[in-house]
Design goal:
Length: 381
């Protein structure tokens, strides 16, 4: 098939969306399909057209602030060239590329909203009061809506008004293994043999609630240290929070790291903690499980999927849980020896096969697709 992926971000940009689209694109290439990516780009040093690992990437200058950037030239590209593809897969409800695709593309289109639910930011909520009514008629143009989890599907039904019969649930794949480069990556992840590592991974923004994890350290034995992977606007505030509670020497800010370094950190971690308030999927939870981590996470729909699938490794934290209760969970989880789970369904080729089934049905079959995980979304909504 000739497949166009339209996305708000793509490698070498860093983030969960970027990894997701790159992984499925390269998996589809390895299965003999042709994949093109159209994406905004704010880095003028990157070429406007490039082929990486078999994927042809068209980059369009991003105008405006990162979260609301307009991809100059993408609408023209979609008007003139979308008919050259068999299927278009557009990603990220919160980005303009998805809306432009539904507005201007002439080829059957499926979408992955990556929808988190209502934002905690008052500014974002105001924008969505304007954006959501405009987006609703566009969403109806999508042939299928592909959610990354049953939890995301419930949110799409509840807040976006999407008919459950139009939804398919296909998880995000594990990223492909990347060869380590010692001279480039160094060894920033060494943790003393006498320490127990709590790991949290993600962009440092308020809704990830990393400060809540920092505040657990005074309640844990002194050999527990917290490793924070990622960067963002909250970094300075989080460092100040660690100083206020007297644990600066037990918090390590790694910033962004390469995939091999991240995998090394997962292997060293005794516990992975993610207390985010909203996600469409739990990529860091999945990556942690692959490397044998015990997981403590917030009780949100996307994470609940993992708790149901892997109850021996994933524990959800009720919103009402006290810091002492969460600390006790962390301490108990740290004593569980690592063990491996069967996560074949999350391998890139497995996910790509599920997507191809949907793509082919959209192109040739009836306009109906059964929700994969058997959830009664009408009842859940």
């Amino acid at each position: 098939m000739r497949i166009l992926q339209v996305t708000s971000g793509y490698h070498p940009a860093v983030g969960g969306l970027e990894v997701h689209v790159q992984t499925i694109s390269e998996a589809l290439i390895s299965m003999g399909h042709t994949v093109t990516v159209a994406t905004p780009c704010s880095n003028p040093e990157l070429p406007p057209v490039e082929t990486l690992n078999g994927v042809t990437i068209y980059r369009f200058p991003a105008l405006g602030p990162p979260q609301f950037s307009f991809p100059w030239g993408m609408a023209r590209f979609l008007i003139h060239y979308s008919g050259s593809f068999d299927i278009i897969h557009a990603h990220n409800y919160g980005g303009l590329p998805l809306g432009l695709t539904l507005l201007f593309a002439s080829t059957p289109t499926v979408i992955s909203p990556l929808y988190h639910g209502r934002s905690e930011s008052s500014f974002a909520r105001v924008l969505h009061r304007i954006y959501d009514p405009l987006a609703a008629p566009l969403l109806s143009r999508a042939k299928k809506v592909i959610c990354l989890s049953a939890g995301e599907a419930v949110l799409c039904v509840k807040f976006l008004g999407i008919n459950p019969g139009r939804i398919a649930v296909v998880p995000s794949p594990l990223p492909r293994k990347t060869a380590a480069h010692p001279e480039r990556d160094g060894n920033p992840t060494a943790v003393s043999g006498g320490q127990r590592l709590i790991l949290t991974v993600g962009r440092l923004v308020a809704y990830k609630r990393v400060e809540r994890i920092i505040r657990l350290l005074p309640l844990l034995p002194a050999d527990f240290v917290l490793g924070i992977v990622g960067d963002g606007p909250e970094r300075g505030r989080l460092k100040a929070a660690a100083a206020r509670v007297g644990v600066s020497d037990r918090v390590i800010f790694f910033g962004f790291v390469s995939q091999p370094v991240l995998e090394d950190l997962y292997r060293q971690a005794h516990v992975l903690v993610n207390l985010s308030t909203s996600e469409s999927f739990g990529r860091t939870i999945l990556e942690g499980l692959v490397h044998g981590c015990q997981v403590i996470c917030s009780d949100i729909p996307a994470f609940g999927d993992f708790a149901q699938r892997c109850p021996q490794a994933v524990r959800v934290v009720p919103e009402t849980a006290s810091p002492a209760e969460i600390a006790a969970l962390v301490q108990r989880a740290a004593s569980v020896p690592p063990f491996m789970l069967d996560l074949e369904a999350y391998q890139p080729e497995s996910v790509a096969c599920c997507l191809l089934e949907i793509y082919r049905e959209v192109c040739t079959g009836p306009d109906h697709y059964v929700v994969r995980e058997g959830d009664d979304l009408h009842a859940a909504a």
